[in-house]
Write a structure and sequence with these properties.
The complex is a heterodimer of chains A (about 220) and B (about 230). Chain A has a single domain, classed as MetI-like fold (Orthogonal Bundle), CATH 1.10.3720. Chain A contains 10 helices and no strands. Chain A is globular. Chain B is about 30% helix and about 30% strand. In chain B, α3 runs antiparallel to α5. Classes of the chains: A mainly alpha (about 220), B alpha/beta (about 230). At the A-B interface, α6 and α7 of A face β7 of B.
Amino acid sequence: MTADEWAILGFTLRTAGLALLLILPPGVALGWLLARRSWPGKTLIETLAALPLVLPPVATGFLLLRLFGRRGPLGAPLYERLGLDVVFTWRGVVVAMAVMSLPLLVRASRVAFEGVETRLEDVARTLGAGELRVLATITLPLAARGLLGGALLAFARALGEFGATIIVAGNIPGRTTTLALAIFHRIQLGEDGAALRLMAAAAVVAFVAVWVGEVLLGRGRHA
Amino acid sequence: MKLELAGIRLPLQPFTLEVEATLTAAASGICGPSGAGKTSLLELIAGLRRPTAGRVSLDGETLTDIRSDARGVVLPARHRRIGYVPQDGALFPHLSVRGNLLYGRRDGDAPAAVIEVLGLGPLLDRSIRQLSGGERRRVALGRALAAGPRLLLLDEPLSGLDSALRERVLEHLRMVRDELGVPMLYVSHDLTELAALCTQLLVIERGRVVAHGPAAELLVPRPGFGLRATER
């Protein structure tokens, strides 16, 4: 691989990692709320959180473009108050990856928390544990494998993100080009050798992430 | 020990659990057929369920007090100091035996008397997955006792064990009652177990108390059929 290609791989890993960090707290919290609590609007939020899975990625990208543009409802305050541009920057890549992989994390977290017997939490309460201690010492450790597996699957999804990213961040060499965008670009230019190299790199990284994720999720289910 | 259950109403499917009783024995039993509401009553006493009406008090302290308009107070389970051992023990699978025993301890010391009475010494460093059925029951019992409860709730602690193991665990339960002096409320549908441990009995069927009184009076031997709980 060329230095340029290594840089693209590094950029993709960094942005996917950041996207995962961004969605981890809200994704896990939402998974817990869906698994453990009844609240008004639960089905609506559940459906909204799953939408990026079924909407065409370019449609999600277009929505994000409108939301995070300099005059968008989220982009305007970010630009005016903090001077941050999201659209057509690496931040746009991170936002697109985060939104597209959030549903996977929420679903995996929900399943992981549902797999923890509530009786164990109840017994912990009778032994004097408050809600935070129950969460920290019973619920999270028992859901950990499922959560980690879900996080890795979300990370793998972020690595391969294309449709939303190209709308929100464009394909600016050295600034917003991810593996998926670079492969598309090389194919368009007829550089099949380079496309193959990048494809191989993407396959190796995605394979490892999905495989480890599946192993952890499988063990979580059978524990 | 004086456990008062006054005007308890807890909707279940397909009936409402209604209980009015006072239990004072060192070991009291709740019996009745499966699905009679026994486990729900234990969970209510433990603070894990909220009735729609009624009052639960232990040694004069009000634990639950819900008025007819459904308002009232429910002391959270963690403040009740009531040990609860669910049917299969519900041990924490990610902790060792020692980790389970210490979960409810404030000072972090292993409770020597509990370990001795239940014979848990050789098991302390084992993983939960390495325990047999009888060992699991003993560890679950030990975990509840280690937290220093003022009342122990036991839900079918011998179910699923073969007869030899049942006798051994039963012996441990007698030792808990007599040597550790922790009052217990013992749920079972097996009248022989109840006769072996309890001196007071509450018989529930489809959510209603059908008998309440000394076990010796309620459990009458039936020739060839073991014991039978009489209604009164």
